[in-house]
Amino acid sequence: MQQLTEKYSYYFWVSVFFLMMFGLLALMYYSATNIDYVWRWYRIPQYFISNETIEVCSEVQGEVTSITEKAGTASIVITDDYTGNLETYTVPTDAVLISDGDFISMGDVLGTFKEVRPGIMLLGLWITLKVSMISIIVGILIGLIGGLARISDNPALKWSSITYIELIRGSPLLVQIFIWYFVLGTLINTMLTRNGLPQVPPLWFGVAALSTFTGAYVAEMVRAGIQSIDKGQTEAARSLGMTYSQAMVHIIMPQALRRILPPLAGQFISLIKDSSLLGIIAIRELTKATREVVTSSLQPFELWFICALLYLVLTFSLSMFAQYLERKAG
Amino acid sequence: MIRVKNINKTFYLPEPIKALNDISCHIKAGEVVVIIGPSGSGKSTLLRCLNRLEKPDPGGHILIDNIDIMHPKTNINKIRAELGMVFQSFNLFPHKTVLENINLAQIIIRKRSKSDTEKRSMELLEKVGIPDKADVYPGNLSGGQQQRVAIARALAMDPKAMLFDEPTSALDPEMIGEVLDVMKTMAREGMTMAVVTHEMGFAREVADRVIFMDHGAIIEEGTPEHFFENPKHDRTKLFLGQIL
After folding, report:
1. Is residue B69 within a helix (H) or strand (E), and if so which, with residue range?
2. In this structure, what are the phi and psi dihedrals at residue A13, rounded to the nearest 5 degrees?
3. Are B78 and A241 an interchain contact pair (Cβ–Cβ within 8 Å)?
């Protein structure tokens, strides 16, 4: 009897949970309808995969000299009436709209075909993924070096590391992004231009800002991880004749990294989310792409939900990957 | 083999505490020396100074095979490879299997080939009586088994001498025997050994010489017969009276 009541009360609260979730969604939908918002989910896919019609137009006036087909593509050769030059255009075979001997005016459509291209949102997602991945890798490197320098006895190394960590952790990421782009970026790019070298695109300043930011936190985790390993481990390694660095590489670091894996994963999840700030320095990542699409499509509700969902997919995958690594490391 | 001359060690915690006070002693090749004394008497500190895990105060000399490890130009890593050390808390590498624990230093310090290394490691596991545990992680072993692996790991470097820092103090009573047996075998085979221990039975049976320390100084030293049956110093008598 007691057990039965417990079971019923469990299912009661489970249904309360689902009712609350459903209620929230219903409320959302209801208020949106109240302000005459029209949900148009069908419009969303085109921002991910756009099916564009491509027209191949002639840039010259003249006669079609030949159409040769080869492996699904047709090469159309037109003889320019004025210069006598041969102009060649290639289109898919089944898209050809003219035939041999036709007279073509400038601007005439020679063929049309559809091409599937990644939409602006998909490109944004790719940029977010790319920036995050590079920043995670660089962040790990900076963190490892910073963490080792932090526990070093050498004052130059130790104090540089402390200064770096305190500076980065003590200022907002947004400000750091501005400094990287508007201060350091201007300096670097002006210097490069003066020496006749190509400029560094904004993406790399974004990567620099994110990885130095993450590196500081990773450095502190690495330090804590190393210090959490029992002193006996170093002593055992050193007593076998290993040098400090051999003991670090073979004994201490492998154990420390295992231990800091969960907070490290949390930090990288934060990094993916923080990459949404990069829109302010003209990097068209997911959030910026969404903002642009919202301005042109006027479907903010759907798009912002989709945007949040995509971030969730990225962060959740990373979190799953970290859990897999943890299980594997035992 | 090992010669200690006028060694001092002060710990700053932060007020200075003198752990070793002008210690001089020696261990001959093939000799088994047991160091005993109450806790805080400096016996572990002395042992740890021998491979410079603890850095003695400046002044004094520690000669290992006639090389002074107090000299700043001495490559301490080379010396340590020749001195096996066994710790109270085993300090096996928990992320490596038993076999990998024993292999590691042979490969990276002794530069042995993989096959030579594995052969030597299995020999040693055989010797300490647990060849079946080669692929197990240390966390799944009993304390006695872990300590035997630690001994095998130290022996794998083919050291000239072995230092034991209270090797049985962290073990359950029924496991002390298996570790002491391994140590007795080593002693019989002529290994030079310095052993800090509270096992008086081991001292009496195996030691060539016993050193008694208190308050950072050597109070008395001699053969086990002399030491256990007819100690001269009052402090020694008191200590033995308390523990025997």
Report:
1. none
2. -70, -30
3. yes
